[in-house]
Amino acid sequence: MTEQDTLDFAKRFIGAIQSGDVAAVRACYSPDAKIWHNNDRKEQTVDQNVKVLEWFIRKLPDRNYRVQRVEALKDGFLQQHVLEATLPDGTAWSMSACVVVKMENGVITRLDEYLDSAESGALSVLGR
Questions:
Q1: CA of 68: how far to CAs of 1, 39, 102, 126, in Å?
Q2: What burial class does residue 96 get, using C-beta atoms within 10 Å of its C-beta: 0-12 exposed, 13-18 middle, 19+ buried?
Q3: Per-residue pLDDT of the chain (128 residues; tens, 9 = 90+)
Q4: Residue 20: phi, psi to the nearest 5?
Q5: Are residues 10 and 71 in contact, defined by beta-carbon separation less than 8 angstroms?
Q6: Phi, psi of 5 (to 5 degrees)
Q7: Which among 79, 96, 89, 99 is positioned nearest to 124, based on CA atoms?
Q8: 3-state secondary structure 79-127
Q9: Rounded to whole angstroms, how far apart are CA atoms 83 and 69?
Q10: Is the pTM of this model over 0.85?
Q11: Closest CA relative to residue 101, chosen from 66, 120, 73
Q12: Is 25 helix (H, G, I), strand (E, B) or coil?
């Protein structure tokens, strides 16, 4: 992939998450991709990650990803963003995050996401 192809992919990927297009998100991943988060330091499968995404879409339907930085890497991309949404009680909420994405053959094989744990704590009111 060219640098522009990678940047275009990154834009489509975050756009699919923001719009709640779970099928498009899944298509961005290799079937055996691993997703890791700094808050629990555990790897997820694509199926596990999609399940969390579906929950997130239901709980925060107005989510917006304000991308602050995206850079193509030789084997993927890095993106820094602020996730903004309205909590069910009407409170505005935001969380800073950064993802480091590794790609092979045009799909994501690994995604490491770094979340601000102080900001993510507000999501505990959403339950499971």
A1: 23, 21, 19, 26
A2: middle
A3: 899 999 999 999 999 999 999 999 999 999 999 999 998 899 999 999 999 899 888 888 888 999 999 999 999 999 999 999 988 888 898 999 999 999 999 999 999 999 876 555 555 545 55
A4: 80, 20
A5: no
A6: -60, -45
A7: 89
A8: EEEEEEEECCCCCEEEEEEEEEEEEECCEEEEEEEEECHHHHHHHHHHC
A9: 13
A10: yes
A11: 73
A12: helix
Which pair of structure tokens corresponds to residue 61? 């339907």
Q: Which domains does the chain have, with CATH numbers?
A: 3-126 (3.10.450.50)
| Token duo for residue 117 | 């744990």
Q: Hunting for tokens 């009680």 — which residue is that?
A: 89
